[in-house]
Amino acid sequence: MTQQRSTAEWQALGREHLLAPFSDYKQLGAKGARIVTKASGVYLWDSEGHKILDGMAGLWCVNVGYGRRELADAAHRQMLELPYYNLFFQTAHPPAIELAAAIAEIAPPGMQHVFFTGSGSEANDTVLRLVRHYWAIKGMPSKKVIIGRINGYHGSTVAGASLGGMAAMHAQGDLPIPGIEHIAQPYWYGESGAMDPHAFGEWAANELEKKILEVGEDNVAAFIAEPIQGAGGVIIPPDSYWPRVRQILAKYAILFVADEVICGFGRTGEWFGSQYYGLEPDLMPIAKGLTSGYIPMGGVIVRDHVAQTLAEGGEFYHGYTYSGHPVAAAVALENIRILREEKIVERVKQETAPYLQKRWQELSDHPLVGEARGLGMLGALELVRDKKTRARFEGGIGMRCREHCFRNGLIMRAVGDTMIVSPPLVITPEQIDELVSLARKCLDATAAELRG
Ligand code: PMP
User: Fold this and answer.
1) Residue of 188, 381, 389, 393 with fewest CB within 10 Å of its CB?
2) Atom of ligand 1 nearest to the CA of 260
């Protein structure tokens, strides 16, 4: 147990010693972090005793909800049995092998192998090294370029941030690294101009073909994309996008990487977002929902032909101390057991996602909401000054809205002026009602602040 301190004491101690991720240290130091102390189900409690509905499932990861004793027990048992061993140099252990087999059972057909990592970022570093290695084994070492998308997110390591298309991240430290190209994103609400969704989806997909031809098929290793962009603002492509991308991928010899770090493990109502859209990726980076965030773990699921090629390539000089960590693997196995036995993914598809989407749409009548969109257990609200022109508020209002959410007991994330949710998959219809009415209350409070 950590020591009991007051909120102010924790904030001061954090200010003195803790460098938090994605934070403006001066601003955070002045304001003080909100200290979260415990959680159960879909709720968090802060150090002041406030109960907060976690509309983001942590960082899109706590799929089975907080407080599942079975996951703690699995970790405890495994720590006593074998707390650590590695998979390097011709050793293995039961939890990693069992987990790889369990993932192969739920993965799309023909994707029977997994490389384990410690996180989603490490999964995408693995992707970068693996696809280049793959083409070298095939005798085509010039195929090195990976095409990603502007405003895509693939992690925060050098490769992850380079594959991603976040301008602010690229601006710090000369990213992306060479050999990575970015194309437009299928963000209809934000970037379509006068195009209707169908035409815009096809246009955005055609950007892939344009880029392949520009770089030269002989130089392109892979295309990487999230089925639905998460961190970019829950960007759900128009219906025409993925079918057209599939046609393009069928024409060229390049690998397709579907980053399932957010969409994987049930978020869309299917086990993987690729299945929702009928995609057939060659590689699927995973993390987050793999362990429901209870312990760090990621991986890359690979299609059989990729695994077969790797088997012909001699040693793959790549891996992490914690690849397939036995305690993480034991927790992931138990998490997958819970998801399967409690039919959580099926319930999302049949009951709770349709209900969330129905209720979420009701928010589109709010004066601040230019668009309410969602899919599965994902939702987004575009906050605008003018619904007709989609003009935004000067200076932005997303962070102000987020403050009202915190104050009213709801966590919604702000991506610029797009408010997003991604609740635990176990959220009940009653809790969805609560989420939607809290969201409306926070929108009202934001509108009142703007008037005042
Ligand atoms: N890919 C996607 C699609 C993600 O959303 C994230 C994390 N938000 C990552 C990769 C990186 O994962 P991690 O933070 O575990 O390194």
Assistant:
1) 389
2) 3
Alpha carbon 283 to chain centroid distance? 16
* pTM above threshold 0.90: yes
Give the pLDDT confidence of 373-430 residue by residue, as tens digits. Answer: 999 999 999 999 999 999 999 999 999 999 999 999 999 999 999 999 999 999 999 9
With the most atoms of ligand 1 within 8 angstroms of its CB, the residue from 234, 261, 268, 295 to mutate is: 261
Which of 155, 342, 366 minimizes the C-alpha distance to 260? 155
State the distance from the centre of ligand 1 to the C-alpha of 149, rounded, in angstroms: 15
- What does the alpha-carbon distance between residue 41 and residue 57 come to, in Å, rounded to a whole number? 10
Complex ipTM tops 0.95: yes
Ramachandran assignment for 31, one of left (phi > 0), alpha (psi -120 to 50 degrees), beta (any other):
alpha
Atom of ligand 1 nearest to the CA of 231: 5
Which residue from 168, 292, 276 is spatially nearest to 226, judged by alpha carbons? 276
**What structural domains does the chain harbor?**
34-67+344-450 (3.90.1150.10), 70-342 (3.40.640.10)
With a Cβ cut-off of 6 Å, ligand 1 is lined by 59, 119-121, 124, 153-155, 160, 226, 230-231, 259, 261-262, 287, 298
CA of 451 to the centre of ligand 1 (A): 37
Angle, vertex CA 131, rays to CA 133 and CA 311, nearest 5:
55
Residue type, 171: A
